[in-house]
Design brief:
Blueprint: H1 2-24, H2 35-57, H3 62-79, E1 92-93, E2 96-97
Antiparallel strand pairs: 1-2
Length: 98
C-alpha cells in the first residue's frame, strides 16, 4: 500500500529537517500560538479526518471509530490549552509570552 510509505517518508523527512529548521528559524516561531504550535494542531487534526473517512468504508465496528473522534478533538483542544493560547499574554519576555 502506498499510504504507509508516504507517511513513513514524510516522518523521516521531518525528523531530518527539524534540527536544521531549528537553526534557521527565528525563536518567536516556537512561542505560544505561533507557526510551530499551529502546525502541531494541524498534525493532530489530520488523523481525525482519516478516522472519519475510514469509519465510512471499514468493516470494523463503527462505535469504536466514532468514539475516537471526540477523543481526538479533546487532544487537539488540550494541545491548544483549551483556547487559552488565544488570550492576550500578560507580558512578553526574551523567551516569549507569559
Amino acid at each position: 500500500m502506498l499510504l504507509p510509505k508516504v507517511v513513513f517518508l514524510t516522518a523521516l523527512g521531518l525528523v531530518i529537517a527539524a534540527p536544521l529548521l531549528g537553526i534557521v528559524l527565528p525563536p518567536w516561531w516556537a512561542w505560544e500560538n505561533q507557526p510551530i504550535e499551529n502546525a502541531q494542531a494541524a498534525v493532530l487534526l489530520g488523523p481525525l479526518h482519516t478516522i472519519f473517512l475510514y469509519q465510512k468504508s471499514a468493516n470494523q465496528p463503527k462505535a469504536i471509530l466514532l468514539a475516537a473522534i471526540p477523543l481526538w478533538i479533546l487532544l487537539v483542544s488540550r494541545d491548544l490549552s483549551f483556547g487559552a493560547v488565544f488570550l492576550d499574554p500578560t507580558s512578553v519576555g526574551t523567551n516569549g509570552p507569559r
